[in-house]
Specification:
alpha/beta, 5 strands, binds shikimate-3-phosphate
């Protein structure tokens, strides 16, 4: 099966807390398209949670599963809205695949805002319960990967979800 759909997927990237899942699901509803979240694909493929994979098999195993999930998501035959786990774009193969199959929008916000949004839940293993410093570090380390993959950037700071959805759909070029 080709991984290039007849119209490009809308792909959302950005750090944890950027709003990829919330905004992505709403964009999919507005466009009348399927919504695919790569973390959900990982979980469906292996029958356990992302946090559990990190805990039992480590991050590198998660990244392997995530690479497959990105490939599966890009291979969705109908144009879809795809929300990528925050670290997926660090992998050059994922970046190539996403750029080929989709129009990529980078959702941005400062680390303190991201931290407010993600809270202290345990479902994000890289945050170990929550630290703005970790998000600041990831923002620096990953900036070049987000820049390299993104076709457009949407600032989400201080904006209501509906405004962000409008902004994403405005920049999207199918
Ligand atoms: C990660 C982000 C998470 C999830 C995993 C690793 C990351 O997804 O893929 O915990 O490396 O930034 P969200 O960005 O949807 O929280």
């Amino acid at each position: 099966m080709s991984d290039v759909a007849e119209s490009r997927h809308l792909v959302l990237v950005g750090l944890m807390g950027a709003g990829k899942t919330t905004v992505g699901a709403a964009c999919a509803a507005r466009l009348g398209r399927p919504f695919v979240d790569t973390d959900d694909v990982v979980e469906a493929n292996i029958g356990t949670s992302v946090a559990e994979v990190f805990a039992t098999e480590g991050e590198s195993r998660f990244r392997e599963l995530e690479r497959q999930a990105v490939a599966d998501a890009c291979a969705t035959p109908a144009p879809a809205v795809i929300a990528c786990g925050g670290g997926a774009v660090v992998d050059p193969e994922n970046r190539r695949r996403l750029r080929r199959a989709g129009f990529v929008v980078w959702l941005q916000a400062p680390p303190a805002t991201l931290m407010d949004r993600v809270g202290t839940g345990t479902e994000r293993p890289l945050l170990h319960g929550g630290s703005t410093a970790t998000l600041e570090r990831l923002a620096v380390v990953r900036a070049s990967a987000y820049e390299a993959v993104a076709d457009a950037l949407v600032d989400t700071d201080g904006r209501a979800v509906d405004e962000v959805i409008d902004a994403v759909l405005e920049v999207y070029e199918p």
